[in-house]
Design brief:
heterodimer; A: 387 residues; alpha+beta; Butyryl-CoA Dehydrogenase, subunit A, domain 2; Butyryl-CoA Dehydrogenase, subunit A, domain 3; four-stranded mixed sheet; 11 helices; 8 strands; globular; B: 353 residues; three-stranded antiparallel sheet; 56% helix; binds flavin-adenine dinucleotide
Chain lengths: 387, 353
């Protein structure tokens, strides 16, 4: 065990720090969920990142990356969140689909999709959930019917994050009409502006758009758009989900920065709050550190050739519960002002904590609910019998 | 940066894990309890043969020169087995401290301890009693301003029975004039503080082992025991409780291991990490032990089921080497005075922040 950064890693940190200092927008961008303008501002930021080849540092250089390892990715993320740079509007693409494409895509598919993803030219949404297929994703009903060199897509997808403004979606479809459950599913890409796609934004709990419903009625896409073999969709989705929960979706730096701000908030209000808040603040900071240390441990293991297993589910539970605890603690420090919207003249920075709190409440739901994660831990890590 | 144990580190722990798996099963614990003996002589002899007495002693002092990170998984294995013998406290805390003092007067005792012919028990102001004082040959007592080395036969040791049948606690009185003042020289505070941190770290490691053992015992029982015609482990209420415990364990472990690696820094950053590890392991062990009892139903409340051994050790260790209030204070000192944010996870010193 060696918990020292190498000189190269330290130099790398300074390099990215300097670049971010010079490029991060001085004013926060408008939310990418609320308006097209906010979304496009985030796309422009992705392009800026890509020009510096900072879009996805772990990807091969041929796809716009730097071919770096996961420790360097963590350093990048630390500097990224430290700098207050915008959230990644293409996270479904770069963090979820990208790594999966890298593993299962043909060379032609990689060439077609990865660079455009890293550059922000094509922004992706995930279209797995359906009204009747939530936790029980294997109940997917949307179909992809083979027609020569094409598939014709039909069905109803829902809760697709950022689909209101995104360019592409990767969806789970039933390619074998006679199949049931996990069999006969395939992962297929479609453009969100293709004929036959109707995108219906759904306002979220805070009133912003956030996600959308997708009605697909005879959408024709080439067979080229299928990732992996026909009928391999489930396996590939589970690989994506493992990556999502286990590592990439929520990098630790995000929570460590929140923890730092929480400590600052506490210090500013120390005399006004009740004593128990102090312990809550300490716990939040410790949890953020624990999560970071755990991810360093996972990254070290993966670099040495290991794999992410069911312990990805422990991560998802831990960060989602921690995120709620941090924001709830912040609200308790803000007291009666906590309810102020960002637009209130006296809100100051308060609105950010409220926004963050609402967003944190979704954490135990998306990427597989925490109840489902607990089932996975109990059955696959602990070996308890299935119901 | 590589957050993995080396093969040697894992092998050292495996040797201990295998030994206690062989010789320290609950049936062995019960046999020892019935005998009323303080040690299982056979097991202790085997442990001494491993040569870990010298593990944390510097090479120039005749030791192996290993670090806490080399020993932390050994302590986890001892917790997992609820080992009665003082492998962790004697080899992990006391002997390395006495050796580190470099005192000429103590040199013979160190030599004997490294050979396995003298046993040292350690008393520290953080702990109200000295564990296993009566069976030690020497008592090493930390007090403000130094260390006393006392022959056990020169001290009066009064047994203070513990809820944990394998912890033998003693209040100790001795005539200071008869003690060897070995810590009078300046600079002794550092080694004593490091010994305290090792005590806290290895207590955390043992509690993590206890937590995992409790989950494992509960899982075994939940697979066997049937109610309503099915194994109780198929019921989601139990599954989710055990999964919640496992999450606690998974996020205490990397903190423990990082704390072990950072301990030699001996500054506010490494101390806060040790304290964090102790708090996290303590919570994991507490939750694990209570859930393991619940999963066993009334059996869990009986003397017959083994879970209570682990519960009792966890109760004891959670307050030994500083309780939660103490360790939370150290974390608070680090948070409110030190650098915060993702770039400081592995920071070495406060000044450079
Ligand atoms: C903010 C947000 C963004 C999202 N983004 C996307 C996206 O981009 N793409 C996409 O495809 N989906 C997305 N989703 C959908 C998300 O994946 C689903 O909401 C999730 O899988 C749960 O499905 P459901 O909402 O149908 O709830 P249900 O499955 O109906 O679950 C309702 C409740 O029942 C519990 N439950 C269900 N089954 C079990 C069981 N077997 N054991 C115990 N408890 C159970 C659940 O845990 C939950 O508490 C998003 C959701 C949110 C909130």
């Amino acid at each position: 065990m060696d918990l020292n950064y190498t000189p190269e890693q330290q130099t790398f940190r300074q390099e990215i720090r300097a670049w971010l200092k010079a490029h991060v927008p001085s004013q926060p961008l408008e939310s990418f969920d609320a308006t097209r303008a906010g979304f496009e501002a985030h796309r422009a930021w992705e392009r800026t990142l890509a020009e510096g080849r900072w879009g996805m540092v772990t990807w091969p250089e041929s796809y716009g990356g730097r071919g770096l390892d996961l420790i360097q990715w963590l350093i990048f993320e630390e500097e990224y969140y430290r700098s207050g740079a915008p959230l990644r509007v293409n996270q479904n693409g770069i963090f979820l689909l990208g790594p999966t494409l890298m593993e299962y895509g043909t060379p032609e598919q990689k060439a077609r999709f990865l660079s455009a993803m890293a550059s922000g030219d094509e922004i992706w949404a995930q279209a797995w959930s359906e009204p009747q297929a939530g936790s029980d994703l294997a109940a997917v009903r949307a179909t992809a019917t083979r027609d020569g060199d094409n598939y014709v897509l039909k069905g109803h997808k829902i809760w697709s994050s950022r689909a209101a403004f995104a360019d592409w979606a990767f969806g789970l479809f039933r390619t074998d009409p006679a199949s049931e459950r996990h069999k006969g599913l395939s992962l297929i890409f479609f453009r969100l502006d293709a004929p036959g796609v109707k995108v219906q934004p759904i306002p979220q709990i805070d009133g912003e758009t956030g996600f959308a419903e997708l009605f697909l009625d005879g959408v024709t896409v080439p067979v080229f758009n299928r990732l992996g073999g026909e009928g391999e969709g489930w396996k590939i989705c589970m690989a994506t989900a493992g990556f999502e929960r286990g590592l990439m979706l929520r990098s630790p730096a995000r929570f460590q920065v929140t923890a730092r701000k929480l400590v600052e908030l506490y210090k500013a209000h120390e005399d006004e709050v009740e004593p128990s808040v102090r312990n809550a603040v300490l716990q939040c900071w410790m949890d953020a550190e624990a999560y970071a240390l755990s991810i360093y441990s996972t990254a070290s293991r993966l670099i040495a050739g290991g794999h992410i297993g069911a312990e990805a589910s422990t991560n998802k539970i831990f960060w989602s519960e921690m995120d709620i605890a941090m924001h709830k603690t912040a609200l308790s420090i803000l007291g009666a002002r906590a309810e102020l919207l960002r637009s209130a003249p006296e809100a100051g920075d308060i609105g950010r904590w409220l926004d963050g709190y609402f967003f944190s409440l979704a954490g135990p739901i998306y990427a597989g609910t925490n109840e489902i994660q607990r089932n996975i831990i109990a059955e696959r890590m602990l070996g308890l019998p299935r119901a | 940066m590589d957050f993995r144990f080396t093969d040697e580190q894992t092998m050292t722990a495996d040797v201990v894990r295998d030994l206690v798996a062989d010789l320290c099963q609950p049936a062995d614990l019960r046999r020892l309890m019935a005998s009323g003996e303080p040690f299982d002589q056979n097991r202790w002899a085997k442990i001494q043969e491993l040569g870990l007495q010298s593990a944390l002693v510097a090479e120039e002092k005749g030791g192996l020169g290993l670090q806490p990170v080399d020993f932390v998984q050994v302590a986890e294995a001892c917790g997992y087995a609820c080992l009665p013998e003082p492998l962790v406290e004697a080899y992990g805390v006391a002997i390395p401290l006495l050796a580190e003092t470099g005192s000429d007067a103590a040199a013979k005792v160190v030599e004997a301890a490294l050979e396995g012919s003298a046993l040292i028990a350690f008393g520290h102001p953080a702990n109200p009693f000295v564990e296993r004082a009566d069976t030690a040959d020497w008592l090493l007592i930390a007090k403000s301003g130094g260390l006393d080395l006392v022959k056990t036969s020169d001290a009066m040791c009064t047994l203070q029975p513990s809820i944990d049948p394998f912890r033998r606690l003693f209040s100790v009185q001795y005539d200071e004039a008869a003690a060897l003042r070995i810590g009078a020289q300046s600079g002794i505070e550092g080694p004593i503080a490091s010994a305290f941190d090792r005590g806290a770290l290895f207590a955390a490691a043992q509690m993590l082992g206890i937590a995992q053992r409790c989950v494992d015992l509960a899982v075994d029982y939940a697979k066997e025991r049937q109610q309503f015609g099915k194994p109780i482990g198929s019921y989601q209420a139990l599954k989710h409780q055990l999964a919640t415990v496992q999450v606690k364990i998974e996020f205490a472990r990397p903190v423990l291991h990082a704390a072990a690696a950072m301990l030699p820094q001996a500054n506010a950053l490494s101390r806060a990490r040790v304290s964090h590890a102790k708090l996290a392991a303590c919570e994991a062990a507490d939750l694990a032990a209570r859930n393991a009892i619940q999963v066993h139903g009334a059996m869990g409340y009986s003397w017959e089921v083994d879970v209570h051994f682990f519960l009792k050790r966890a109760i004891a260790l959670s307050e030994w080497w500083g309780g939660p209030a103490f360790h939370r204070r150290r974390v608070a000192e680090r948070i409110f005075n030190g650098p915060l944010g993702p770039e400081h996870t592995f920071a070495k010193e406060l000044e450079h922040a």
